[in-house]
Amino acid sequence: MTDIKAAAGAYAEALAKAQQGLSAGGGMEKVATGPSFGEILQNTISGAVQAQRNSERVSAAAVAGKADITDVLQAVTEAEMSLNTVLAVRDRVIRAYEEVMRSPI
């Protein structure tokens, strides 16, 4: 009987300490170390859109005879790489979503 009382007392004491630690912060604060995933995704997509616009601008300048073909090639390649990055991220997000949906509850 003494062991049960001692165990219950130890449990109550540990519970009280845990509640005090949580109410005082106890290391459970959210630490913001950088941008969120949404912000990173938004910046990546904005960069890809900007690269596409730059590619179109340089291509139009080349048609008008105001840009060199190497500038066009560089701008188009940069836009293509940005688009491929966005597509790769999209594919990974879709695969992760599908995997979560397949997991049992």
Characteristics:
105 residues; mainly alpha; 3 helices
Give a quick summary of the entry:
With 105 residues, this protein is mostly helical.
Average pLDDT rating: 82
Kindly state the percentage of residues in helix. Answer: over 70%
Number of domains: 2
**Structural class of the secondary elements?**
mainly alpha
Basic shape = elongated
Low-confidence runs: none
Radius of gyration: 28 Å
Count of DSSP E strands? 0
Helical region count? 3
Q: Identify the quaternary structure here.
A: single chain
Q: Report the major sheet.
A: none
Distance between the termini: 41 Å
The proportion of residues in beta strands is under 5%
Order of helices and strands: HHH
Write the layout of secondary structure elements.
Layout: H1 2-23, H2 37-63, H3 69-102
Helix pairs in contact: 2-3
Task: Give an overview of the whole structure.
It is a single chain. By secondary structure, the protein is mainly α. It folds into 2 domains: 1-31; 33-105. 79% of the residues lie in helices and 0% in strands. It has 3 helices and no strands. It has helices at 2-23, 37-63, 69-102. The relative contact order is 0.07.
